[in-house]
Specification:
It is a single chain. This protein is mainly β. Helices cover about 5% and strands about 45% of the residues. The strands form 9 sheets. Strands 13-10-18-16-15 form a 5-stranded mixed beta sheet, with no helix packed on it. Strands 22-23-19-27-28 form a 5-stranded antiparallel beta sheet, with no helix packed on it. It is elongated and about 90 Å long. It has 3 domains: about 120 residues, Immunoglobulins (Immunoglobulin-like, Sandwich), CATH 2.60.40; about 100 residues, Immunoglobulin-like; about 180 residues, Lipoxygenase-1 (Sandwich). The longest helix is centred in the first third of the chain and has 15 residues. β29 and β30 form a beta hairpin.
Length: about 400
């Protein structure tokens, strides 16, 4: 009878005894001593506390050897094949989210006393403030919906933090030209298609600036072009975010007292410049092609492109972004009583496969047209590109007010 009482007391002690298991970066967990009798288990959660399905869980021993592997269920639950080793020790639990998820998990270090066993791994939560950047590759020198549209059939997209020289992360471009970069921390980045020769075409990527903060970046147009331009040419790429708007490229080239509008047919004197891609807002708009290939569609990327090959000495080209549709504005307006949404215009300049700069339109000034950049021929075969108004103004093309041509600069 006395032995039975001792046995019962021992069992009660075993059942009530807890083993403290420390989790790096997590709360401490209390695990019952009898838990070693079953296989280790736990849960993997997303940022909202919902179980993450399809995550891979691996447990490594102190020698970095894989002890067991499991995949989470639809509720985020996982159970390893068997108990890990037969004694205590230091283990590392690694969680890899499924490819469809942007979540990232810190490694969890579990220390089990020598007389214990790894069992209840507990709840594993993702790192906070981690997001994804996803989008599609767009050839900005051709119309996406045209039958002759050329696109890179392979390639890599790089994510690089502003001011750094090494890519933070990369992603492979899928056959549908989409990509996703997971595990992105908040910050200012450039997203760029890595320069590559694909199918005998020298593709060059344009660095697209993004600010990651508080959410995922989706549907990002990532621009590329065929670098078969004449050496020294300047490629101007105008894009805008508001797909309900039709933002027109207005470029004028000339000298004092004369100005010639750059059109799709181009101009050769006094400059060599041409629109390569002209986009309109909807079918029936002025400039819409019969097949609708230059009409902005849902999910499409509004981009207009101008190539400037050369400018004679003293010749200046001024480049404007202008809202074509009535009741729209490049810069928008919110005066507290009503609002007109801005266009979200950006202008990218490339020359000899080098990113020369990115320009952004102002905000809340209620202007229908904005001067973006100016290019001046230097007389030695080169050109100088600068912010509009950076040099002495000359009489070149109209100055736009709120929806109307006001005057020419004199």
């Amino acid at each position: 009878m006395k032995n039975l009482r001792k046995t019962a007391a021992l069992l009660a002690t075993l059942i009530s005894t807890t083993l403290i298991i420390g989790l790096m970066g997590c709360d401490f967990l209390a695990v019952a001593a009898e838990d070693w009798l079953s296989a280790p288990y736990g849960y993997v959660y997303d940022n909202d506390g919902v179980g993450l399905a399809g995550a891979t869980v691996k447990v490594y021993n102190g020698s970095s050897q894989v002890q067991s592997t499991a995949t989470t269920s639809s509720t985020g639950y996982f159970s390893l094949d068997s108990k890990v080793d037969s004694t205590g020790g230091t283990y590392t639990v690694k969680v890899t989210a499924p490819t469809t998820s942007y979540l990232v998990y810190d490694d969890v270090t579990v220390i089990v006393p020598d007389d214990g066993y790894l069992y209840n791994i507990g709840a594993i939560k993702p790192k906070t403030g981690i997001y994804s950047v996803s989008g599609s590759i767009i050839n900005v020198r051709e119309l996406e919906k045209s039958t002759s549209y050329t696109k890179p059939t392979a390639g890599t997209v790089e994510l690089r933090k502003f001011g750094e020289t090494v890519a933070t992360a990369t992603a492979t471009v899928s056959s549908d030209l989409s990509y996703t970069i997971n595990g992105v921390e908040p910050g200012s980045y450039f997203v760029t298609f890595k320069k590559a020769s694909v199918d005998s075409i020298a593709w060059v990527g344009i660095p697209i600036s993004v600010e990651v903060s508080g959410g995922n970046i989706t549907n990002l147009g990532t621009f590329v072009y065929n670098d078969n331009l004449t050496a020294g040419s300047i490629l101007l790429v105008l894009s805008w975010e508001n797909r309900d708007y039709d933002i027109d490229t207005h470029a004028y080239a000339g000298t004092v007292g004369s100005a010639i509008r750059v059109t799709t047919s181009g101009i050769t004197t006094p400059a060599v410049a041409k629109w390569e891609r002209d986009i309109v807002a909807k079918t029936g708009d002025v400039g819409a092609l019969p097949d609708g290939s230059n009409v902005i569609a849902s999910g499409a990327y509004p981009v207009e492109t101008t190539v400037v090959e050369s400018l004679a000495s003293g010749t200046e080209l001024r480049f404007f972004a202008k809202a074509f549709l009535a009741n729209t504005s490049v810069t928008g307006l919110d005066d507290g009583t009503g609002s007109v949404q801005p266009s979200g215009v950006k202008l990218y300049a490339m020359s000899d496969a080098v990113h020369f700069g990115t320009w952004f339109s102002p905000l809340n000034s209620f202007e229908t047209a904005i001067g973006m950049v100016q290019i001046i021929g230097n007389g030695d075969g080169t050109m100088t590109l600068s912010t509009f108004g950076g040099n002495t103004p000359r009489a070149l093309g109209p100055v736009f007010g709120n929806g109307a041509i006001v005057t020419e600069m004199k």
